[in-house]
């Protein structure tokens, strides 16, 4: 397993380099113009000058190499400078966004806290709900619990978040008057610092709606996989053997069956976790969380290639990492799996 | 002394009830929502409306425009004119006298050097300044003394106010931006996010595309203003959510550009928590007709170029019929309600320049049918008119936007009634309004027969806006698909009128000529089919007073007068 | 000589040989006993019938605007009311269903087939694993929007020219959705295959020299069916929503082409004023996903020999 992990890490580097090239080319070739949302009153020759000032006059390979250099050399220098107070970077050019004209990493850093809080909470709640629901639904297949669980999770998945989000807003923020204790804010305050009990309550209140929308969405998916995988395993021979040996139901289900059923669930969760970083585009926009998802959307709409490239590349690194972690977990869950 | 000012204040309060009791910062905090979040605070680097809006409480130009288009001196003592001698008789220079008691919000003095620096900042060849066109024809800006600035033009300039007035060209502080010239401009993050200004508020915190925190500027030249001690401008969401946060949940005091369906707005305001305010600028939603053939059968590089005239759109009768078949009143009712007016004009405002045509306002399907019949287009078996084998089949493109798609559906039906077949197409705004020469779906490439969008002009002088349709401004492969003459109009008459306009300084003559050009483009030839004169709309809570919406200048231009209604 | 003997033998064999009952009949019998599956099947058939026969039963244009009949509530004339341009909502739901069902089902099938194939190959053939999974990583990392913009720019015109506007855009959308949604299925199937191929029955099959193709089709595929069914259910919902997002961005069908996702989006601004505009398309969409889910459930049970035997 160790050699496998090492080998995978070695291949990860060329893979990521290749991914970065493909990402760059997709952004380069797809139609779109970083100046599209500027007013039409700005004449074309001025636009051309702005474009040159953004560095778009250089050929693509130079811009790509510049970005690589910035990402792997300059930005880490700035990071070291920031952490240890050194002066390695020496005022070198950083990765600048076309839209904000500021360093891309500053913006990402500004946005990570709210994304982690809201999307992360949504996902943790989702997983914590989905696993027990999936287990019980499978163990008591076609019971009322199972039927209702199926129904809710299907609604949760088939009704898009832009509908559930707005429905929750209408119920909890419009219908309930805003002097009531049950009223919930619809606008996330990113400047709120938790320093006291009151600010903590305010923070929790502003996280409830967006996290609930996301939790429903994640729980719907995971619980379906959990249930189907449990069902597959419950009918296996080893379950009958375990029961015949007189093991308690609790041990049979929660130790033997659950462990063997985790493989698809682990895969799904490993695929979801990097998504915490890119945020939840629609939910963040509806509740004005203004995390990474909303920034990514704005950057995509504004054709802000440096920002999109940096965010998606970090996302790619996370995907490669978490898929590796998932592969290692497979080996732990089922020792029969061998990779070499 | 104190008593005297208090008495004066009391006297003033009789005139200006409830605002006058206010002293600076007495009314606490105000929450503003801009659903399009600002990316930075420097209008010279962005050019976007949202950026110059949020920058307007901080950095100010020499003069602003009132909602009706009059100029109001801000950092200038007075507006220089031919009469008071500030504008030279040869039309080649203008001299601005600056106010003497103005301080930057760091406490230093505002001087003519800052104005000169602002000109240098924007005209630096490598700076990529978005407002460069405002300095077009400016030969030199010099400080005559510490409080006098002279702007000289290379050629006589009948309208000299494009420079340094309006929200696009606020004055930057020389001391702060000194090291941000040229290629250094985008690297000055601190300066671009927190510019030092002379306005009523200063920036405390700026999070890009998210939130701006302001506090009252302690050095502001009007001692009792602003009434609010702090202000937050939050970004994010969509127009519906913005209107909801003010009118339904009451979380915010003011929301900008709350463009929602008229019935939805009516329902939200019915809750009684706030109201909508509208202001009409020069924005016109219009349909442009393509004079060249956009057929995909033509080879790339010849498609939609002057080489191939359009098979039927070049016929004035067809364009006129298309315009006649449209019921503009109904479009307004469905799409804009109180926030739009039907119009037949390309220049609908200011009043002095507006031709106020009304001939197109009444829908005339019969007349349009008769006109096409007369022009030789007869209905075929499928109900579509044709002449010499050329069918009146139109590709109608616009950007993705709920109201525009509703307009497309309605207009398609009306055109079907006059025997014109319409295929609809919508393109994502980021592509449509972009100018990527590689994309076939842009506004400027115009690979369609008609296209719909909205445009306006800055300030109050339409000369440059009217001059967009000369032969030399036709976009094509030779110009790298650049040029504002999307229609590909090329007419000697029109070019001659534009030449004349550029040489006329007498206001009355300019206005008459501008109206003539407007009519030539619209009601006479129907190259442009204006649909709706769109207003800017904002919503604010009942407890926020002093809001006067402005769509000629920044919409929150008078934020210093905002106050809490008790 | 030998020929005639052979034919005679074959004829004799044919006469005495009664083919054993086809296993698919067993599957059908088992499927029929599954209440949920039968219910899902009924809803699904109903939806198909609504979409296929709807235009005959309800002969009203889905795109014709009628300015005098805007925002009408439910009535006999307009069973589901009208929208802000006076278009009949029932007609729009029927017309939208055609596109939505076609796009959703086709894109889901394509995506599942692609995902399952890649997943099985990666899980089964160790040599292919690394390269296939790195390709999967690549696709997972690609941002959807620029990729779709690129595909639309490159392929819309040629496809529309060779297949006509409707079929051309349909092909483009279906491919775009499938291309950007197969990765989860591939990862999940691969994970399952990795454990299944080490199970005793696969080892047994391998030891008697069963070729890889046969092992995959007879042994591996049925065992990974249940996660594939879940992926298929989720895939339909995903395809429908992606399609509506595409159309919304102007990358999909032209604006006068209703689909359920689009109706949902168009209704959103009016949710507080006319909730039914969101309710009907949401209901249609949910019943489609729910029915496919129950059919999948039943099919999984029916195809599992251990359950079928009971």
Automatic annotation (TrEMBL), chain A:
Domain ABC transmembrane type-1: 112-326
InterPro entries: BPD_transp_1_N, MetI-like, MetI-like_sf
Pfam families reported in the protein's UniProt record: BPD_transp_1, BPD_transp_1_N
Cellular-component GO terms for this entry: plasma membrane
Subcellular location per the Swiss-Prot or TrEMBL entry: Cell membrane
TM annotation in the entry: 118-139, 151-176, 200-220, 265-287, 307-333
Membrane protein topology class: Multi-pass membrane protein
Superkingdom of this protein's organism: Bacteria
GO biological process, one term: transmembrane transport
PANTHER family in the record: INNER MEMBRANE ABC TRANSPORTER, OPPB IN A BINDING PROTEIN-DEPENDENT TRANSPORT SYSTEM
Family: Belongs to the binding-protein-dependent transport system permease family.
Name of the molecule in the record: ABC transporter permease
Source organism of this protein record: Falsigemmobacter faecalis
Upper classification of the organism: Bacteria, Pseudomonadati, Pseudomonadota, Alphaproteobacteria, Rhodobacterales
Automatic annotation (TrEMBL), chain B:
Record GO terms (molecular function): peptide transmembrane transporter activity
Gene3D superfamilies: Dipeptide-binding Protein, Domain 3, Periplasmic binding protein-like II
Annotated CDD domains: PBP2_thermophilic_Hb8_like
Domain Solute-binding protein family: 71-469
Alphabetic keyword roster: Signal
Primary localization: periplasm
GO biological process, one term: peptide transport
Localization per record: Periplasm
Annotated signal peptide: 1-22
Pfam families: SBP_bac_5
Highest taxon above the source species: Bacteria
GO cellular component, one term: ATP-binding cassette (ABC) transporter complex
Family note: Belongs to the bacterial solute-binding protein 5 family.
Protein name: Peptide ABC transporter substrate-binding protein
From TrEMBL, chain C:
Residues covered by the ABC transmembrane type-1 domain: 97-296
Alphabetized Pfam families for the sequence: BPD_transp_1, OppC_N
Record-linked PROSITE patterns: ABC_TM1
Topology relative to the membrane: Multi-pass membrane protein
UniProt keyword terms in alphabetical order: Cell membrane, Membrane, Transmembrane, Transmembrane helix, Transport
Transmembrane segments: 37-58, 101-125, 137-155, 167-189, 220-241, 278-296
SUPFAM superfamilies per UniProt: MetI-like
Similarity remark: Belongs to the binding-protein-dependent transport system permease family.
Name assigned to this protein: ABC transporter permease
């Amino acid at each position: 397993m160790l050699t496998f992990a090492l080998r995978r890490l070695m291949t990860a580097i060329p893979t990521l380099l290749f991914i970065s090239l493909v990402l760059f080319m997709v952004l380069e070739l797809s139609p779109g113009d970083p100046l599209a949302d500027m007013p039409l009153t700005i004449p074309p020759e001025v636009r051309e000058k702005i474009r040159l000032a953004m560095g778009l006059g250089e050929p693509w390979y130079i811009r790509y190499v510049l970005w690589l250099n910035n990402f792997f050399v300059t930005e880490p220098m700035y990071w070291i400078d920031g952490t240890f107070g050194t002066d390695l970077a020496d005022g070198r050019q950083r990765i600048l966004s076309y839209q904000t004209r500021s360093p891309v990493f500053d913006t990402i850093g500004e946005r990570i806290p709210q994304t982690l809080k809201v999307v992360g909470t949504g996902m943790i709640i989702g997983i914590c709900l989905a696993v027990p629901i999936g287990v019980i639904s499978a163990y008591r297949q076609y019971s009322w619990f199972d039927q209702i669980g199926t129904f809710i999770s299907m609604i949760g998945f088939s009704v898009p978040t832009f509908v559930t989000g707005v429905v929750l807003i209408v119920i909890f923020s419009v219908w309930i008057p805003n002097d009531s204790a049950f009223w919930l804010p619809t606008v996330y305050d990113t400047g709120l610092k938790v320093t006291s009990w009151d600010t903590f309550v305010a923070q929790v209140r502003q996280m409830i709606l967006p996290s609930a929308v996301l939790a429903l969405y994640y729980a719907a998916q995971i619980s379906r996989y959990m249930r189907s995988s449990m069902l597959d395993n419950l009918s296996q021979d080893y379950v009958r053997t375990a029961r015949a040996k007189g093991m308690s139901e609790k041990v049979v289900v929660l130790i033997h069956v659950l462990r063997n059923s985790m493989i698809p669930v682990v895969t799904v969760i490993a695929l979801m976790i990097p998504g915490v970083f890119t945020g939840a585009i629609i939910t963040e926009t509806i509740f004005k969380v203004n995390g990474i998802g909303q920034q990514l959307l704005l950057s995509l709409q504004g054709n802000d290639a440096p920002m999109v490239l940096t965010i998606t590349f970090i996302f790619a690194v996370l995907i490669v990492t978490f898929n590796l972690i998932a592969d290692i977990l497979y080996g732990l869950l089922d020792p029969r799996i061998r990779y070499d | 002394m104190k008593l005297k000012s208090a008495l004066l204040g009391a006297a003033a309060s009789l005139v200006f009830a409830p605002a006058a009791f206010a002293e600076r910062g007495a009314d606490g905090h105000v929450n503003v929502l801009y659903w399009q979040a600002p990316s930075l605070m420097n209008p010279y680097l962005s050019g976007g409306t949202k950026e110059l809006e949020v920058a307007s409480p901080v950095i100010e130009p020499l003069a602003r425009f009132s909602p009706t288009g009059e100029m109001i001196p801000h950092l200038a003592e007075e507006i220089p004119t031919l009469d008071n001698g500030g504008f030279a008789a040869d039309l080649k220079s203008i001299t601005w006298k600056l106010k003497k008691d103005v301080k930057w919000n760091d406490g230093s003095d505002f001087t003519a050097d800052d104005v000169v620096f602002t000109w240098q900042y924007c005209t630096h060849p490598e700076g990529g300044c978005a407002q460069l066109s405002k300095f077009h024809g400016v030969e030199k800006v010099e400080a005559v003394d510490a409080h006098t600035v002279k702007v000289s033009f290379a050629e006589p300039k009948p309208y000299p106010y494009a420079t340094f007035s309006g929200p696009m060209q606020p004055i930057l502080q020389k001391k702060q931006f000194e090291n941000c010239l040229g290629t250094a401009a985008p690297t000055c993050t601190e300066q671009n996010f927190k510019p030092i200004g002379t306005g009523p508020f200063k920036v405390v915190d700026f999070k890009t595309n998210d939130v701006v925190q302001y506090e009252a500027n302690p050095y502001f030249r009007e001692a009792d203003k602003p009434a609010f001690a702090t202000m937050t401008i939050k970004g994010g969401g969509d127009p519906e959510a913005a209107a909801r946060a003010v009118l339904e949940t009451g979380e915010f005091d003011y929301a900008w550009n709350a463009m929602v369906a008229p019935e939805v707005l009516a329902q939200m305001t019915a809750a009684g928590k706030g109201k909508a305010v509208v202001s009409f600028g020069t924005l016109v939603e219009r349909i442009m007709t393509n004079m060249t053939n956009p057929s995909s059968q033509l080879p790339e590089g010849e498609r939609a170029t002057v080489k191939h005239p359009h098979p039927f759109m070049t016929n004035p009768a067809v364009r006129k019929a298309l315009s006649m078949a449209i019921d503009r009143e109904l479009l307004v009712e469905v799409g804009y309600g109180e926030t739009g007016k039907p119009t037949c004009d390309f220049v609908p405002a200011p009043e002095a320049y507006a031709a106020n045509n009304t001939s197109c306002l009444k829908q005339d399907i019969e007349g349009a049918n008769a006109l096409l019949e007369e022009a030789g287009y007869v209905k075929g078996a499928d109900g579509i008119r044709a002449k010499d084998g050329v069918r009146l089949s139109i590709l109608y493109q616009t950007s993705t936007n709920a109201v525009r798609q509703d307009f497309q559906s309605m207009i398609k039906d009306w055109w079907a009634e006059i025997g014109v077949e319409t295929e609809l197409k919508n393109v994502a705004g980021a592509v449509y309004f972009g100018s990527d020469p590689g994309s076939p779906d842009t506004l400027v490439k115009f690979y369609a027969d008609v296209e719909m969008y909205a445009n306006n002009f800055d300030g109050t002088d339409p000369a440059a806006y009217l001059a967009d349709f000369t032969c030399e401004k036709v976009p094509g492969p030779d110009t790298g698909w650049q040029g504002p003459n999307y229609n590909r109009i090329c007419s000697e008459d029109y070019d001659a009128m534009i030449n004349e306009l550029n040489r006329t300084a007498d206001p009355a003559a300019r206005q008459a000529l501008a109206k003539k050009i407007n009519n030539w483009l619209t009601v006479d030839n129907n190259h442009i089919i204006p649909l709706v004169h769109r207003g800017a709309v904002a919503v604010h809570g009942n407890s926020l007073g002093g809001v006067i919406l402005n769509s000629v200048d920044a919409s929150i231009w008078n934020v210093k007068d905002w106050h809490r209604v008790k | 000589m030998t020929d005639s003997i052979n034919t005679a033998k074959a004829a004799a064999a044919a006469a005495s040989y009664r083919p054993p009952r086809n296993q698919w009949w067993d599957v059908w019998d088992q499927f029929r006993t599954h209440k949920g599956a039968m219910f899902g099947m009924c809803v699904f058939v109903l939806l198909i019938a609504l979409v296929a026969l709807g235009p005959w039963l309800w002969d009203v244009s889905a795109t014709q605007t009628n300015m005098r009949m805007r925002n009408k509530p439910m009535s006999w004339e307009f069973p589901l009311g009208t929208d802000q341009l006076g278009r009949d909502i029932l007609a729009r739901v029927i017309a939208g269903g055609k596109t939505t069902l076609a796009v959703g089902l086709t894109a889901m099938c394509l995506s599942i087939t692609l995902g399952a194939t890649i997943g099985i190959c990666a899980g089964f053939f160790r040599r292919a694993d690394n390269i296939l999974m790195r390709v999967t990583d690549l696709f997972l990392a690609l941002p959807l929007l620029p990729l779709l913009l690129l595909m639309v720019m490159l392929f819309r015109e040629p496809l529309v020219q060779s297949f006509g506007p409707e079929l051309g855009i349909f092909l483009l959308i279906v491919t775009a959705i499938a291309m950007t949604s197969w990765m989860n299925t591939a990862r999940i199937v691969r994970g399952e295959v990795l454990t299944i191929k080490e199970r005793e029955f696969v080892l047994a099959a391998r030891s008697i020299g069963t070729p890889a193709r046969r092992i995959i089709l007879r042994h591996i595929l049925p065992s990974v069916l249940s996660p594939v069914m879940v992926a298929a259910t989720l895939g339909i919902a995903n395809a429908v929503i992606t399609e509506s997002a595409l159309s919304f961005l102007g990358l999909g069908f032209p604006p006068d082409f209703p689909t359920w996702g689009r109706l949902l989006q168009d209704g959103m601004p009016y949710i507080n004023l006319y909730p039914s505009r969101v309710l009907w398309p949401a209901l249609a969409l949910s019943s489609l996903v729910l029915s496919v889910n129950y059919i999948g459930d039943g099919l999984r049970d029916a195809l599992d020999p251990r359950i079928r035997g009971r």
